[in-house]
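Materials and Methods. Structural model of Metal ABC transporter ATP-binding protein. The 247-residue sequence of Metal ABC transporter ATP-binding protein from Allobacillus saliphilus was retrieved and submitted for structure prediction as follows.
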Amino acid sequence: MNGKVEINQLTVSYYGDEVVSDVSCSFDAGNLIGIVGPNGAGKSTMMKAALGLIPKDRGHVEIGGKPIHRVRKEFAYVPQRNNIDWDFPIIVKDVVLLGTYPHLGLFKRPRKKDREWAMECLERVGMEEFCDRQIAELSGGQQQRVFLARTLAQKANYFFLDEPFVGIDVGSEEVIITILKELRDQGKTIFVVHHDLSKVENYFDDLILINKELYGAGPVNKVFQPENMEKCYKMRIGLSPSLGVEV
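The predicted structure was written out as tokens:
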């Protein structure tokens, strides 16, 4: 599957207050798309509502012209680290093996080839030597790499990652962004909720700029402009390729 992602008039409320308001945008397949905005802007809420993980007031999302609920096997989701129970007693290779389950069918158990594939995915993120460790024993960066391996095991075409770089080491961040760019180059489509504006131009092809409502969506070089950022963040922001971001 290799189709456009379309978000149409997505609106979400908590206790009567709109936190995502009438967001519409679309992106071609094979792009790495950042979702940025200030704290509390609705970035994570928009992603979860788009995937049908939380209720929405209105709007719909299509992938390749099909409603999101009809293409669940086509996308993989990595939640924020603070939404994961890291104390759950499971070893690393079994976390990754869970990624093969959507393709197994009801009541089927993973086979030898599924276990071998899970190990290949662990090798790709450089975590094969930790395969028998409890997930709780790993550092934040290592845990995030294991969860990326799980998404690779799903053989998805669309990836949705919520703040994957928060609280991890520089080495793990480099491994993850390198793999995400490789997936993009293979024709996969990746959405990433992100907070570090200084890396936007290096990391992403396209950008969604949101603060409850949409302030821009499209190629980074068009959206990531001072006037758009200042409207969204409601403060003066200087953008410089050499200096990064100045607030």
